[in-house]
């Protein structure tokens, strides 16, 4: 297999090295992954904020062919491990896009959001980077994709929460007809928003 | 940096303030994940965490395996499992549940299932096969979110063997109406291209469609593929250069919708990607480069706003400008850009500036001279990354005059550096320089400390024997040799005295080897002391198992030279229970050897490290043991490939749907069938039945329905037949005359940065600069030596001038239409194993005589040409060409790596008169069948050959309606189209043989069943069967 992955891993950990989001796009055994996280944290955490955002060659993640590009936001480090041909500044702004997207999706993102909504963060990331390749850099587009899924989540949450649905069904009875555009074939499923509360 | 984010993140002082975070807290307070997280944050030690997670995991396991757990609960369980895995605790029991969740759940549960699978498993995990059906089903789903998820998972982890199963479905998605689906499909295909390039060869046309997609997002995604393909084969995509340029021009010109803007820069990432593609296309290709100049110039001009991302574009532009064939105007602008980067107060830009300098300095050393003061400053920069990059830059400009001081700087850096990777990298460079400039050796051996550094330079070499032999070569004198070794032992021992010093593992390995071999030289220390030190080293946890076995070997060696082996036996005892098998083996060896002194002195003689050992590779001394074991009923040894084959047979994938009741005997039958095609009738009958049954009952084998279509029409849409004789718009142009470049004028004045440094510091730096940059330019600052790139420009200018004047010369070749070119493929006599002949027909327009003609080929990934052919008038008598006369030249081509299609490009260059040469480009589309020749073998030979082939592929090919009932018709079609040899037809089975010239056989076993031709191919080449099956399909469909 050709080893031409643009992004090898995306690591997010806090100031104490606690992992908050770990996504490897190239296979490493579990213990190796942990070692990489530790080493990366070790490398990144000892750097001041007034040095450059690039680091070359942690010995574990592939030596001279790879470099680390990171940003430090308050309590969190966002580290992208990429192959050496990748554009440093491009990735640096990609991290920014990712974080700003998180900010939009979580309405003022904080470390806790990343912990408690780990799965959602992964879904957002999946819309930015897919299989190690940059899929989308347009923030609005990413948010739109994630919102499509969230909408689904809400509607399904309502469906399974039967009592809540009953309540809202009653509520809706006297309302004028709500346009139901349930078109399964379309990504923009516009089911009325049956929020449980 | 986003201020909002910055503020919010700062606002959260600690994790425990859950209540103050309404958004995050609401759900989590009640959920199990929430309580898990809260519990973890309250813990103080790693040990406690371990205990807690263990407990959590066993709870998860119990819940997951309980039949009462709903999918909804499972979703929540899975998130907890993901969390535990993230913290580094294995939850392997949950993998199967993740797959189940992806299979059975509704969209939301499925999403968690897929996420968990892609986080837990890797491409080669066995469980992944269970996911294939789910992916197939979801790819066919009408719910777009499910399709998206399936594409995402396919691009993240997908087993290579199963790609054919999903490929047609993913291909279909390229024409999907939704842009996001097309985009994801393109990336999934790119991933398939990376892991199995042969499988996606036939869809290159579709990649082109993706590139021309009306949605810029899809086009952007397709650039990933093109970047990779162009990297592998720049020659094959030259025709796209214009398109890429057009795209870039439109992007730069702001033709994209405003949505694509990022900080009011139009699609910056797309620009970066395009610039990269252009760099690859323009490299070593003046004609392609020439058409890029305008757009590059525009890019440089437009990207002048002060945002991070514009610098990213600028940097990429600079790289492209310096990679492609040079243009003086652009180079000047690019150099200015580099200057801005280097002088920038922003540290990221400075770093990139240094990187850019490192990249261009070999072409244009002047640039380094211009910035010498900045470079000197960077040597003392607080950021070690900047310092390292500076050293890298200096390393590129070393010459005999400045090497000493540069190496000194490197050694300085090494003394401070603790990072193992940097150390090894830099030490390698020092070693390289030391080899290149032998006079440096004195520098290393001056002090003990530097000796240590010199030892570290050895780390770069793979093994220490090599190193010491090298040192022996350099010191012929026995005495000096002994001294060096003693010196090494001494310094290593003193190094071992120090506590808490972290040595790179390689270094420890060299150290233990040297101590093991040469400690005897240092009689006064005594072995016991050395042994103790080594034993202590062995106990350190930071030492890797590999190094431990080196140390163990040293201990063994040492204990041979002494009778007092207390430490050695203690070590042997301790490590004979080690979990590491290699280490345990060493320990046992040590114990046995210490018990048997005679054997030991025989095995480990003193100071014999450099004597050659005779190794009995056939292991003949084991013959007795083997025959004994065989006599007592042991299984005979099977070579690796045979075991591998059997293993793969057991695991072999069945692309056909499972029958209603899979007969148990079938598997065993098919194994016998694999071993001998001639004894196939039994098994084929059986498997035939199963296929038939499966077809009838296909409605009930729901989950596999996607699989059946794999080799249907969609999978292998016949491609447009490339025209037999293809002529490209070739350019005829005189190649450059040798440079007679007058020395470059107009060297830019040296920019000296004024800084706040005190005069003495400044002077120091000036001095340093003069010693560092000596020899780079000539001392006369007005007449600096110009780099090769500048010389090139001059040639170009000369060329353009020359062509104007030459237009009026008597033999006029003013345009390329003068000589018509035809490239014809002529297949050799079909019965021979002849390679493919290419004939070049040159039709002359005017009267001329060719002096020399050369046919050269672009180096190709798949198709290698034996050599470039040169025809000289001395050996080949060129007639005088009169108008319309035709001259034919021939050359042979063979295909080294099988592939379905191999576009071949190259040039024909010829001289007419001394000093006048012309170049014509051609490109011809070759297909695999051009290289296939019949292989005449008998049935017995075929049987033998069949067994020796290691790679096989089995496929069902759809037959045309009139062929369905006979085997002869499709075989004849194959014979005609592909020139294969029908060896025999036994009953309903046909065996067929062919070969890829020069000598790669490919065997086919064919059988007609239920309107399909069941073809089983075998070949020693891993790729040939795949490609052949494609050719067969094509041949049958065309017949």
Automatic annotation (TrEMBL), chain A:
Keywords linked to the UniProt accession: Cytoplasmic vesicle, Golgi apparatus, Membrane, Protein transport, Transport
Q: What GO biological process terms are annotated to this protein in UniProt?
A: Golgi to vacuole transport; intracellular protein transport; vesicle-mediated transport
> Which Gene Ontology cellular-component terms appear in the entry?
AP-3 adaptor complex; cytoplasmic vesicle membrane; Golgi apparatus
Q: Which InterPro entries match?
A: AP_complex_ssu, AP_mu_sigma_su, APS3, Clathrin_sm-chain_CS, Longin-like_dom_sf
Could you tell me which SUPFAM superfamilies the record lists for this protein? Answer: SNARE-like
Answer yes or no on keyword Membrane.
yes
Residue ranges of every copy of the AP complex mu/sigma subunit domain listed in the record: 6-151
- Annotated compartments: Cytoplasmic vesicle membrane; Golgi apparatus
User: What Pfam families is this protein classified in?
Assistant: Clat_adaptor_s
Query: Does this entry carry the keyword Cytoplasm?
Result: no
Membrane topology per the record?
Peripheral membrane protein
**Described function:** Part of the AP-3 complex, an adaptor-related complex which is not clathrin-associated. The complex is associated with the Golgi region as well as more peripheral structures. It facilitates the budding of vesicles from the Golgi membrane and may be directly involved in trafficking to lysosomes. In concert with the BLOC-1 complex, AP-3 is required to target cargos into vesicles assembled at cell bodies for delivery into neurites and nerve terminals.
- Write out the similarity annotation: Belongs to the adaptor complexes small subunit family.
Q: Give the protein's recorded name.
A: Adaptor related protein complex 3 subunit sigma 2
Automatic annotation (TrEMBL), chain B:
Q: Where is this region: Disordered?
A: 678-700, 715-749
Pfam families, per this entry? Adaptin_N, AP4E_app_platf
GO annotations of cellular component type: AP-4 adaptor complex; endomembrane system
SUPFAM superfamilies noted in UniProt: ARM repeat
Q: Name one GO molecular function term.
A: cargo adaptor activity
Q: Where in the cell is it found?
A: Endomembrane system
* UniProt keyword list: Golgi apparatus, Membrane, Protein transport, Transport
The way this protein sits in the membrane is described as: Peripheral membrane protein
Q: Where is the AP-4 complex subunit epsilon-1 C-terminal domain?
A: 933-1037
Ranges annotated as biased composition (Polar residues): 734-749
**What ranges does the record list as Low complexity composition bias?**
678-690
Q: What is its main location?
A: membrane
The record's listing under Gene3D superfamilies reads:
Leucine-rich Repeat Variant (1.25.10.10)
| Gene Ontology biological-process entries | intracellular protein transport
Subunit composition and interactions: Adaptor protein complex 4 (AP-4) is a heterotetramer composed of two large adaptins, a medium adaptin and a small adaptin.
Into which family does the record put it?
Belongs to the adaptor complexes large subunit family.
Q: What does this protein do?
A: Subunit of novel type of clathrin- or non-clathrin-associated protein coat involved in targeting proteins from the trans-Golgi network (TGN) to the endosomal-lysosomal system.
The name this protein carries in UniProt is AP-4 complex subunit epsilon
């Amino acid at each position: 297999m050709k080893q031409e992955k643009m992004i090898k891993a995306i690591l997010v950990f806090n100031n104490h090295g606690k992992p908050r989001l770990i996504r490897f796009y190239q296979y490493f055994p579990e213990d190796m992954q942990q070692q990489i996280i530790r080493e990366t944290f070790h490398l990144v955490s000892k750097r001041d904020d007034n040095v450059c955002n690039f680091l070359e060659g942690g010995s574990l993640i592939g030596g001279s062919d790879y470099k680390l590009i990171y940003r430090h936001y308050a309590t969190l480090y966002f580290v992208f491990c990429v192959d050496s041909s990748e554009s440093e500044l491009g990735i640096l702004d990609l991290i920014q896009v990712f974080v700003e997207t998180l900010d939009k999706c979580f309405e003022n993102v904080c470390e806790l959001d990343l912990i408690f909504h780990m799965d959602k963060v992964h879904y957002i990331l999946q819309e930015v980077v897919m299989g190690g390749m940059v899929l989308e850099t347009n923030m609005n587009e990413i948010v739109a994709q994630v919102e499509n899924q969230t909408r689904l989540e809400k509607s399904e949450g309502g469906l399974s929460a039967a009592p809540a649905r009953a309540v809202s069904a009653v509520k809706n009875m006297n309302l004028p007809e709500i346009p139901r555009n349930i078109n399964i074939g379309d990504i923009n499923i516009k089911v009325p928003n049956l929020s449980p509360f | 940096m986003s201020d909002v984010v910055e503020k919010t993140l700062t606002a959260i002082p600690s994790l425990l303030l859950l209540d103050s975070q309404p958004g995050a807290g609401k759900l989590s307070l009640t959920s199990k994940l929430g309580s898990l997280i809260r519990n973890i944050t309250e813990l103080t030690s790693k040990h406690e965490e371990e205990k807690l997670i263990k407990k959590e995991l066993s709870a998860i396991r119990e819940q997951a395996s309980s039949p009462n757990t709903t999918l909804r609960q499972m979703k929540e369980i899975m998130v907890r499992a993901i969390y535990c895995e993230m913290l580094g605790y294995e939850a392997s029991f949950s993998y199967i549940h993740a797959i189940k969740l992806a299979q059975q759940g509704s969209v939301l549960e499925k999403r968690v299932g897929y996420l968990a699978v892609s986080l837990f498993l890797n491409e080669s995990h066995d469980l992944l096969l269970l996911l294939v059906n789910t992916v197939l089903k979801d790819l066919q789903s009408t719910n777009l979110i499910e399709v998206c998820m399936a594409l995402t998972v396919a691009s993240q982890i997908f087993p290579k063997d199963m790609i054919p199963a999903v490929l047609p479905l993913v291909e279909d998605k390229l024409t999907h109406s939704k842009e996001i689906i097309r985009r994801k499909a393109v990336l999934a295909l790119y991933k398939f291209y990376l892991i199995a390039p042969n499988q996606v060869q036939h869809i290159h046309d579709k990649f082109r469609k993706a590139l021309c997609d009306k949605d810029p997002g899809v086009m952007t995604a397709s650039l990933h593929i093109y970047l990779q393909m162009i990297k592998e084969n720049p020659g094959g995509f030259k025709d796209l250069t214009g398109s890429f340029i057009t795209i870039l021009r439109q992007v730069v010109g702001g033709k994209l919708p405003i949505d694509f803007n990022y900080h009011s820069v139009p699609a910056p990432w797309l620009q970066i990607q395009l610039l990269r593609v252009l760099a690859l296309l323009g490299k070593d290709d003046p004609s392609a480069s020439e058409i890029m100049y305008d757009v590059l110039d525009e890019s440089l001009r437009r990207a002048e706003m002060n945002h991070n991302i514009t610098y990213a574009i600028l940097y990429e532009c600079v790289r492209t400008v310096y990679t492609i064939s040079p243009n003086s105007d652009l180079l000047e602008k690019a150099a200015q850009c580099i200057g801005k980067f280097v002088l920038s107060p922003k540290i990221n830009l400075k770093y990139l500036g240094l990187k850019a300098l490192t990249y261009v300095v070999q072409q244009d050393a002047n640039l380094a001279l211009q910035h010498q003061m900045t470079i000197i400053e960077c040597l003392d920069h607080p950021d070690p990354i900047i310092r390292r990059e500076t050293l890298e830059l200096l390393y590129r400009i070393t010459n005999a005059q400045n090497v000493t001081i540069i190496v000194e700087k490197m050694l300085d850096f090494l003394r401070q550096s603790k990072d193992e990777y940097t150390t090894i990298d830099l030490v390698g460079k020092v070693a390289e320089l030391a080899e290149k400039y032998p006079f440096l050796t004195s520098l290393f051996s001056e002090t003990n400390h530097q000796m240590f550094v010199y030892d570290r330079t050895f780390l770069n070499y793979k093994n220490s024997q090599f190193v010491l032999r090298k040192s022996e070569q350099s010191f012929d004198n026995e005495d000096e040799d002994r001294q060096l070794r003693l010196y090494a032992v001494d310094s290593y021992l003193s190094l071992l005295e120090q506590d808490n010093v972290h040595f790179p593992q390689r270094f420890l390995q060299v150290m233990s080897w040297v101590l093991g071999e040469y400690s005897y030289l240092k009689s006064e220390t005594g072995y016991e002391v050395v042994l103790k030190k080594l034993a202590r080293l062995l106990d350190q946890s930071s030492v890797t198992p590999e190094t431990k076995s080196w140390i163990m070997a040293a201990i063994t060696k040492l204990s041979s030279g002494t009778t007092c082996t207390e430490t050695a036996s203690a070590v042997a005892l301790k490590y004979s229970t080690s979990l590491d098998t290699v280490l345990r083996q060493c320990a046992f060896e040590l114990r046995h050897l210490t018990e048997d002194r005679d054997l030991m002195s025989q095995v480990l003689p003193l100071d014999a490290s450099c004597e050659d050992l005779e190794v009995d590779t056939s292991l003949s001394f084991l013959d007795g043991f083997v025959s004994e074991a065989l006599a007592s009923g042991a299984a005979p040894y099977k070579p690796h490939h045979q075991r591998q084959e059997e293993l793969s047979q057991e695991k072999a994938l069945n692309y056909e749907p499972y029958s209603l009741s899979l007969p148990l005997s079938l598997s065993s039958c098919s194994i016998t069938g694999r071993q001998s095609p001639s004894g196939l009738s039994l098994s084929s009958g059986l498997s035939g039945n199963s296929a038939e049954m499966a077809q009838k009952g296909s409605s009930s084998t729901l989950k596999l329905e996607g699989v059946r279509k794999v080799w249907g029409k969609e999978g292998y849409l016949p491609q447009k037949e490339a025209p037999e004789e293809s002529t490209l718009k070739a350019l005829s142009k005189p190649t450059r005359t040798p440079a007679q470049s007058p020395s470059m004028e107009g060297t830019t004045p040296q920019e000296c940065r004024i800084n706040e440094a005190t005069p003495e510091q400044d002077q120091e730096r000036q001095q340093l600069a003069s010693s560092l940059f000596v020899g780079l330019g000539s001392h006369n600052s007005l007449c600096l030596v110009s780099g090769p790139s500048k010389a090139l420009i001059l040639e170009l200018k000369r060329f353009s001038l020359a062509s104007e004047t030459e237009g009026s010369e008597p033999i006029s070749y003013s345009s390329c239409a003068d000589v018509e070119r035809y490239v014809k493929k002529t297949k050799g006599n079909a019965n021979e194993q002849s390679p493919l002949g290419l004939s070049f027909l040159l039709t002359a327009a005017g009267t001329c005589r060719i002096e020399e003609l050369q046919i050269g080929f672009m180096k190709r990934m798949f198709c290698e040409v034996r050599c470039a052919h040169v025809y000289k008038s001395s050996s080949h008598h060129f007639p005088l060409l009169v108008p319309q006369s035709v001259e034919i030249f021939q050359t042979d081509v063979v295909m080294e790596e099988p592939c379905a299609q191999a576009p071949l490009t190259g040039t024909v260059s010829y001289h007419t008169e001394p000093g006048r040469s012309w170049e014509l480009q051609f490109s011809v589309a070759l297909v695999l069948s051009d290289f296939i020749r019949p292989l005449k073998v008998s049935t017995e030979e075929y049987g033998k050959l069949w067994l020796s082939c290691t790679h096989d592929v089995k496929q069902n090919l759809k037959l045309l309606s009139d062929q369905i009932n006979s085997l002869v018709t499709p075989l004849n079609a194959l014979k005609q189209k592909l020139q294969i040899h029908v060896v025999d037809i036994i009953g309903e089975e046909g065996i067929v043989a062919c070969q890829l010239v020069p000598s790669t056989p490919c065997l086919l076993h064919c059988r007609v069943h239920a309107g399909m031709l069941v073809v089983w191919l075998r070949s020693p080449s891993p790729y040939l069967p795949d490609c052949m099956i494609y050719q067969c399909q094509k041949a049958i469909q065309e017949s």
